[in-house]
Amino acid sequence: MRKRIILSLVLAAVLCSSCKKEKQQIISMEPQVSEMKSICELATMDCYYHNVARYKEEDAQGILFWKKDKHFWIEYAGVVTIGIDASLIEIEVKDEQVTITMPPAKVLGCKVDENTLSEESFIIDKKSADIDAQDQTAAFQAAQSNMEKSASEDETLLSNAQRRAQKLLEDYVNNIGSIVGKQYTIKWIYSSENASKKEDEGYNEY
User: Fold this and answer.
1) What percentage of the chain reaches a pLDDT higher than 90?
2) Do residues 107 and 82 lie in contact, with contact meaning Cβ atoms separated by under 8 Å?
């Protein structure tokens, strides 16, 4: 009987110690940079493009007045990945204020879907000089560059990508605050030349 009492007291002490330790761990929780970087990586957007790029090389074949241009179009589809460069995210936690430095969204990757390319993808002008494999490769590279340029200049698309990442970060900080019983105040710092143009720059409470 005495052994059972001692064993029960030992178990109670272990459980009590474990509960205290778990409670201390919860209280010490705060937003982490590594977690935020992972969130930004998850927040990337894949945008699908379908376009037609023009390829032209003047005086590519012939002599004098009988020269011909190489002129054809390439129809293609591809994917552009847009999001926040997670390596540039910075965070500072001081008491109940969280300061997040966030770069602008940008094109993180661009890829033409080669499966969508076939002989029918290349539309050759009837007056064009002969087209070879090297010309098609050059046109393919130009198409990829054109697709990336179009996405980089799409302000609406970039803005949506940044807002998407920012909303997920806000939810993350909000959830941490709920767990530890804190009401965090978020200060956003936009590390770009156009930071002053952001309407929502400043303090947000969660």
Assistant:
1) 20
2) yes
Bridge partners, 144 (sequence order): none
Q: How far is CA 123 from CA 117, 120, 150, 163, 172, in A?
A: 12, 7, 22, 39, 50
Q: What is the pLDDT of residues 19-38, one digit of tens each?
A: 444 444 444 577 887 888 88
Which residues have CB under 8 Å from 39's CB, separation 6+?
165, 168, 169, 172
CA 142 to chain centre: 23
Could you tell me the CA-to-CA distances from 132 to 63, 72, 119, 145 in Å, in that order?
19, 11, 12, 20
Q: Which long-range contacts (CB under 8 A, 24 or more apart) does 51-59 make?
A: 51/75, 51/76, 51/77, 51/143, 51/146, 51/147, 51/150, 52/76, 52/123, 53/139, 53/142, 53/143, 53/146, 55/135, 55/138, 55/139, 55/142, 57/135
Task: Give the chain's end-to-end CA distance (angstroms, integer).
Answer: 54
